[in-house]
Amino acid sequence: xxxxxxxxxxxxxxxxxxxxxxxxxxxxxxxxxxxxxxxxxxxxxxxxxxxxxxxxxxxxxxxxxxxxxxxxxxxxxxxxxxxxxxxxxxxxxxxxxxxxxxxxxxxxxxxxxxxxxxxxxxxxxxxxxxx
Length: 131
Fold this sequence. Notes:
By secondary structure, the protein is of the alpha/beta class. The protein has helices at 12-24, 41-51, 71-82, 97-108, 113-126, and strands at residues 2-9, 30-35, 60-65, 89-93.
């Protein structure tokens, strides 16, 4: 199975997940976890471990983060490394809703994780434009 994990500061990740479910319906393997004000990295990592409880050694995961290099994505990558998943992770910063929609659709269409990464980078950048 390929999971999609959205991580962020505050409730941004949960908001992206809620918007995805409103537009596309509930999806298996769609996870969201936000670093709450006052959380320590240990608190956040514990919640991530709980969210990833069903993750197995054969699963893949796409991590979309609000800020590249921020605490939420760093914690997520540490938790996944502890599960031995380094080779099956694609992590991208700067998530936006079109990028997240593309991630869900690409996962459902069975794209391999490298092709999915390349498409998400392009889709995320194309979504930003002046109106």
